[in-house]
From TrEMBL:
Protein name (Swiss-Prot/TrEMBL): Septin ring protein
Native source species: Papiliotrema laurentii
Protein family according to the UniProt entry: Belongs to the TRAFAC class TrmE-Era-EngA-EngB-Septin-like GTPase superfamily. Septin GTPase family.
GO molecular function terms listed in the Swiss-Prot or TrEMBL record: GTP binding
One Pfam family here: Septin
Length: 321
């Protein structure tokens, strides 16, 4: 039977035996659109670097309380605990559930040893919650995904080098999550300082063998590899955040007003905020989600399952003895 089919004229097969499986992409799209997407972003960095402000700038609304003050009398509001907020954003019929995990800044204590532990624990807890749900006999068809897909790491714009504490935190984070570094408050650096600082940071990352996102995989085709290379050349993104709207040429934009002028955070000549936003939402959103599942979660999962196997083997052998 099979040979009869292969011997038929190709034209005939196309004309009369069209079964329509090419519509599978549309079927998948329809299903995915109905289900919607979920994206979990975490911001980490030393205290007061503008983490909460940048989150609000990124998603163009007041999503997270930041220290940003509208008049000088109001008390600054520092983030004091790990705080997850969920928002549903709809764009052209695509529903994105965005979870933002704002973390308290670290590095302002006398002894900063282990101050990053709660953050790393939070990330691992999400993996272990997912694994537990996956291993139940009657598992849900869709397990709610709270695993962190992207961790934006804020670097102090000192223009010098990374602090030892930053290196310690980065090392821990890069083992469990996709890390994307940004230079915070980059309005404080000149263009030359910024370029030199970027190079120095990346050299340090290499020296300390900190593996940053994006990763190349065998599945990547040539354009994807080139895009990743371009992103790597740009890291860390030098960003500026603002929760205020300022008017430039009659247009309302997110910006910061100084005595000497106005910074438009969305202007590529002023900072790389737009590159970061495009990278997160336009080019790498799906890949960040996939990499989390296929690399970070897989590593966690296999470690946990191996440990489980070993402990049950030990129990059996001690029971038998
Ligand atoms: N110059 C400048 N100031 C900024 C920028 N982003 C935020 N700020 C200001 O920095 C201050 C701290 O901002 P937050 O967003 O609360 O900082 P944070 O990192 O969330 O602080 P913690 O939660 O305490 O760690 C506020 O006064 C912001 O207005 C920036 O890009 N440039
Ligand atoms: Mg904050």
């Amino acid at each position: 039977m099979a040979s009869a089919v292969t011997q038929a004229q190709p034209d005939e097969i196309n004309a009369s035996s069209y079964v329509g499986f090419d519509s599978i992409t549309r079927q998948i799209e329809h299903k995915l659109l109905k289900r919607g997407f979920q994206f979990n972003v975490m911001v980490v960095g030393q205290t007061g670097l503008g983490k909460s402000t940048l989150v609000n700038t990124l998603f163009a609304s007041h999503l997270v309380e930041s220290k940003g003050r509208f008049d000088p009398e109001t008390q600054p509001r520092a983030t004091t605990e790990i705080h997850a907020q969920s928002h549903v954003i709809v764009e052209n019929g695509v529903r994105l559930r965005l979870n933002i995990i704002d973390t308290p800044g670290y590095g302002d204590q006398i002894n900063n040893e282990g101050c990053w532990d709660p953050i790393v624990k939070y990330i691992k807890d999400q993996h272990s919650a997912y694994l537990r749900k996956e291993l139940t006999a009657m598992r849900d068809r869709f397990i709610p995904d709270t695993r962190i897909h992207c961790c934006i790491f804020f670097i102090n714009p000192t223009g010098h080098t990374l602090k030892p504490i930053d290196i310690a935190v980065l090392k821990k984070l890069a083992e469990v999550v996709n890390v994307v570094p940004v230079i915070a408050k980059s309005d404080s650096l000149t263009l030359e300082e910024r370029a030199a600082f970027k190079q120095r940071i990346m050299a340090e990352m290499q020296h300390h063998q900190i593996r940053l996102y994006p990763f190349d995989s065998e599945e990547n085709d040539e354009p994807e590899l080139q895009l990743n290379e371009r992103i790597r050349d740009m890291l860390p993104f030098a960003v500026i955040g603002s929760e205020r709207t300022v008017t430039i040429d009659g247009k309302a934009v997110r910006g910061r007003k100084n005595r000497w002028g106005v910074i438009n955070v969305e202007d590529e000549r002023h900072c790389e905020f737009v590159y970061l936003r495009n990278f997160l939402t336009r080019t790498h959103l799906q890949d960040l989600i996939e990499t989390t599942a296929q690399i970070h979660y897989e590593t966690f999962r296999s470690k946990q399952l191996l440990a489980l196997k070993e402990s049950s083997a030990k129990q059996q052998s001690s029971g038998g003895a």
